[in-house]
Structure formats: C-alpha cells, structure tokens
Amino acid sequence: SPHYEEAMAVDNDLITRFGNSQDTKIQQQVAIALSNKGFALDKLHRYEEALAANNDLITRFGNSQDTKIQELVARAEQVAEALLSKGEDLDHLHRYEEALAVYNKLITDFGDSHYTMAKALLNEGNDLEILHRIGQARADWEELVYRFKDNPYFIDQNAVAEARHNLAIT
Q: Is the pLDDT of residue 152 over 70?
C-alpha cells in the first residue's frame, strides 16, 4: 500500500537524521519511528525487513544505560512491542525455535505488560503446538486463560478466547 511506503519514508528520514541525537525526547521519537517502520513492513509482508527494524529498536533501546531513555521507552512499551513483533516476524518466516526464545524473553522481562504478555503466551503456545510440544503449548494457554480471564483492565480478550479454543481442540 502506498500509505505504508510514504509513512516509512518519513520514519526513515527521522531515523537517519536524528538517530544519533543525545536528546532523550528526540530518541523517544526515533524509537516510535522504528516501531512504526516495523509495523508498516509487517503490513507489507516484508518480514525480514520488519525483523531488522525491530532488532534495531531492541538493540538501541532495550539495553540502553541511559535511565531517561529507559524510562521514556519503557513508558511507551516500545521494546516490549518490538519483541512481540519480532517473534511474529519469525513465525511468519517459520523460524519457530527463534520465535520461542523471543517470546520467552518477552514474558520474562516484560511480564507486567498485559497486552504483550498475553499475545506472547498465545503465540508461544501456538509455536509449541506446531513443534508438536502439546503439553508445553497447553501450559502456556492455561496460564494465559488463568491470568487474564477475569482481568477487567485487559481490553483485548481475543487472546483469551483463542487460547480457550486451542485448549478445547488439543
């Protein structure tokens, strides 16, 4: 879609021009641009490129020692979302073992982020099922249902519904 291409051109320009800025507010905009770029590439089914954009965001901001950058990026949950997107890109590329490692890191490091945690548990279970590790898959889906079924703050109940369906048919 031309819309995604145009948006990516703007994001690329911002990343190129300001990627090395020391200003934390500008760095937050770079993180948002990288996140948007990964999203657009996913929508265009350009998963290898999306994976690279998500890796760039994770590398730049996931391990930043700058506490202001950590605070800004954590508040925006950009690293958690980039990890989730990276796992989904790997799934599209049928690289399930690598995706499992990403989901595991996401669950371990960002377990308090409801949306990404639920999707990570769902996706990890789905990958485990593909790899014929049904017991582990069911454990992920059961944890997802248990943790989020009664959570009034968890807006997207689709992951819970899909996990329940998967449990019913495995």
A: no
